[in-house]
Amino acid sequence: MLKDAIKQRHSRRSYLHQPLRDEDVSFLKTRIHEYNQRYGLHMKLVCGHPEIFKGFRNSYGMFHNVENFIMMMGNYRDVYMQEKLGYFGERLVLEAVGRNMGTCWVGGTFAKAALAPYVKEGEQLYCVIAVGYTADKKSMKEVLISRATRRKGKTIEEMSNYTPKCPDWMKSGMEAVQLAPSALFRQPVKFQRENDCVYAEVSHPETHEMLDLGIAMLHFEIGADAGSWTWGNPAVFQKK
Ligand SMILES: Cc1cc2nc3c(=O)[nH]c(=O)nc-3n(C[C@H](O)[C@H](O)[C@H](O)COP(=O)(O)O)c2cc1C
């Protein structure tokens, strides 16, 4: 269940030197194909390309053995492309976690230029998601990097207009948002509830914040149990 995956997920930066099993490749490719077709995205699973993350210049020594990743691309004229990629990319992340794979969204620390041949005309490569098998326990180096990148998170009140008088679904939605990944763990999305609607918005849509918005929207929806979003900034959630 995606709710369990939200609790299990942490960014993983050190991977085992082990190719993805055929059934996991086939699962990810099927999901990617479905989301691409239905929502006009261009996500692509690339397996066995360790050079993209190798060398200090490419990853500042933060990543180890990244051999597989999902490229997050789309039409740059679509103003909501990053929001959609955030939402469906995080769905893939949670589905991969549910199958015991480790993941990490990566916005900058990889050799972007080497991936240019995969990017179609009129599209942009926004980021990648590293994916692979990991040791059950993090190495000391991975623990230190995680601590450095994931400082104390924001409270629900800092991220929304939640008060104890709000319905339970608002609280459980925001608790799921607290566990969402975000670039530099800035947690930039603000949520405002008005009756059965929730507005989610970021202040700097020209940065990675639109990806963070899509990711946080998915977490909120899963935590709140039932409802649906309309793309935008603000995006609008209608509780069912
Ligand atoms: C859009 C986006 C870009 C990210 N880029 C990087 C990156 O370049 N390097 C990195 O080590 N982590 C990156 N992260 C992972 C965040 O640092 C991580 O999600 C955050 O510290 C919270 O930790 P957690 O994912 O373990 O909960 C990125 C996350 C997101 C959502």
What's the quick description here?
With about 240 residues, the chain is α+β, with helices and mostly antiparallel strands.
State the main characteristics:
NADH Oxidase, single chain, binds flavin mononucleotide, four-stranded antiparallel sheet, 8 helices, alpha+beta, 240 residues, 2 domains
What this model shows, in words?
The chain has 240 residues and is of the alpha+beta class. The protein has two domains: 2-144, NADH Oxidase (3-Layer(aba) Sandwich); 151-239, NADH Oxidase (3-Layer(aba) Sandwich), CATH 3.40.109.30. Helix content is 37%, strand content 19%. The protein contains eight helices and eight strands, in the order H-H-E-H-E-H-E-E-H-H-H-E-E-H-E-E. Strands 1-2-4-3 form a four-stranded antiparallel β-sheet. Strands 5-6-8-7 form a four-stranded antiparallel β-sheet, with helices on one face. It is globular and about 50 Å long. Bound molecules: flavin mononucleotide. The site of flavin mononucleotide has 22 residues, from strand 3, helix 5 and helix 8.
